[in-house]
beta-galactosidase
Amino acid sequence: MELTRRQALAISAAGVAAAGWPTSGVASGAVLPGPVTETMLLTGADADHTVDWDFQVTAGRRAGEQATIPTPSNWECHGFGSYHYGGDLVPAEKGNYRHSFTPPSSWAGRRIFLVFEAAMTDADVRVNGVSAGPVHQGGFYRFRYDVTALLRLGEANLLEATVSKESADNSVNDAERRGDFWNFGGIFRPVFLQAYPAARIDRVAIDARADGTFTAQVALAGVTAAARVTAQLRRLDGTAVGGAFSVAVASGATGATLTTTATQPPLWTAETPNLHQVELTLASTAGTPLHSTVERFGFRTVEVRAGDGVYVNGKRIVLKGANRHTFWPTSGRASSPRLARLDIGLMKDMNMNAVRMSHYPPDGFFLDLCDELGLYVLDELTGWQRDYDEGVGAPLVKALVERDVNHPSILFWDNGNEGGWNTALDDDFGLYDPQRRAVLHPWTTFGGVDTSHYQTYSSTASKAAGTTVFMPTEFLHGLYDGGAGAGLNDYWKLMGGAQRSAGGFIWALVDESVARDDRGGALDTNGSRAPDGILGPYREKEGSFFTIKDIWSPVQLASPGYYDSTFPASFDKTVKLVNRYDFTNLRECRFAWQLLAFPAPGASPGHQVLSQGEAAAPDVAPGATGAVTLGLPADWTGADALRLSVTDRTGRDVTSWTWRIRKAPDFAARLVKPATTGGVTAAETAADVTLVAGATRVTVSKSSGRLTGVRRGSTPVSLANGPAPAGGTATLTAFSHFRDGTGWVVQADYSGDLTSVRWRLDANGWLRLEYRYRATGDHDHLGVNFDYPEGYVRGLTWLGDGPYRVYKNRLRGVSPDVWSKPYNNTATGASGFGYPEFKGYHARTCWAVLDTTEGAVTVVAAEEGLFLRLFTPAVGPDPQNAVVTYPAGGISLLDGIAPIGNKFHGVASLGPESRPNAATGDYHRTVYFRFDA
């Protein structure tokens, strides 16, 4: 029995809601007048909702075994075949799929297509033992067969597919299988049947401009008599936009063009993702509807203005993006709307407004969500340093553009990557795209845009000041913990505001680690080839996540270091801001303040909110400067810190700043109380002096002035061999010790870079260390070191800028609070995957409590600006230039720390923040220690 129009529409809408494909045939809250395209899923809708098919793999694990496999999926992720990174091919590995299905008898008289959203890499498809058509070649593209004559409606049918992991066409292998990314095999995107009315609208390509002009190029089929195509524009809530418009078509017509103009429609941008839909109906001249469909789109105009910039709706924009592969450790390239939404949400949480689809087109639902949530997209034809031949590549360009043409989020088409373009295909994109989007060659200058990769700081400065629009499609390569956020502050000062800069894309969004079931689920990044992410494989946030969020926030402080180190005594309860949005006035944001109190050591980490309120959002246009006035109470200066947060119109956190009102000396005075009674005894031997205050015993070497031992009662505390200079020399010239009130002092003087050390143990057990050193010129590290056995450490609680470690060229993105983290030995991107990493440099430390098997070791800074270094982090194999230096010893008290390089650039090729510390002469610091059970 024929489905009603409403039933058919419901089936199609449910399919798209589940799978994100295809938007044709789906309306939002409207009943279409004619028969619609009906859809029948044969696989599951996505990687989260699968259907088992019969399966056999020909090589590798479980070769020859008759089994079942969930579809869609990559077979490696279900125990079949071999894991394989791009490079050497495995041509013998094929998957044989079988699936029985029963199409409805109500489809009689319809034209029925079998659609594969994608299969890796060559697909030979048969229906009821008969070939459905030519073998499809190319692993990331939609393809379909007309199977009307092959189906038995209302009966069981057999679908068979042989999917070859590698292609019989060597150029497909060059473009797809020899790339710098994991290779998989299988039917990894949905497979479904589409049943069209005999006379049908086959597809639609839309050009909807910011001035309201609308053009739809409608492909028709099966039109055997004169007819008419009618269209109606609507908002997504069903509200009509203008009246219906139509065009007559002759018998045998294969296309029609419809045009209209909407009056001041809400425009689509990444900041304002306003969407519309067009309802289209093919009807007979007598008015009988033959086929209805709907397409979603957005009104917007994209321009590359030569020698100027990239413009959307007449406004110059700056793209802030990441390169994204479709990837999940346990499902490979098979994905779902849930995972797509997760990635888009994380990108937007970093204040990104763009994503590059490296190195292949994504799932359709990913683009649907970019349209809905607001991300600019570079959609890419596969090709990494090698390209498709024209014969096999031209149909893939056609498939790419025809599927994706109506997504307003797509600004550019990429023809391959890094030399992987066939220039004969450049013109093909425009054959199917009435918007005539620019085509890019990522890695070089083409389409009016210089997209060159991995420029040094100096070459970036030259390009940003040049005459060509500059938009690197890969920069600041994020191998391990280098790149990504490290160096971005300097680069963005060049790229964020230069007239001809259109922004850029960091490599890459995630560490691509496969969960190897042949290794007990161990994560495999293929050495140093895949751990390039801002996020871990399961989307763990690494330190660069927060740095990028801060630097790319569209709401910025009006001057660098605003209230950074010294809160001004003249603070007038206003904060000066710059609006870096392209289209949004700050009055559309929400501003909220909090006054905070920080707990003392021993209490739970975090902070107490003393009072809070909202501030009126200031009227600040894009690109302008203004100020937000905070309605703080009269006693606001009694708080430890002031926090100001900004959220956007959707409720997403944009940025926040926390300024310490109380400084390190204030916290030191709060924690370290001088003894009022009691005393300290001293015992001297030929080698050392031991000071005793209650249960605390401290031993200092007479030959070096360094700490050689600490005991708390009967328990040794293994902090020793310090303070030793982090750089330079120290030769002891004088040593003395003497009583000082309730305490005892040990004084050591030196020639060389370290000039003096004074220890003072007070009767209450606080050990004060004062040291002075001299340094001029360039240094990686400024300060002093101690030894401590790493194996004794269990965790850290501290008041400082955290919770992530920092480098000299990645200081932004951390904030002051009382933080806590357990010990881990994570090698960022390579092993461990425990975040935040325990080891490394910790900024602006006021106090810290090291939890050890020997008890608690408390360190309190008496002055601002202390970097606490904890041990030397583990690093993955072959870090190349993504390295950072650490001083000797395990624990360091530093005034200057080192920067980190990235895969392609050592620190000398990066910006000012990546330079060594320029020492200025004499340095002095006081630090207190306490040792407790």
Remarks:
- The chain has six domains: 5-196, 201-297, 309-551, 567-662, 673-765, 785-932.
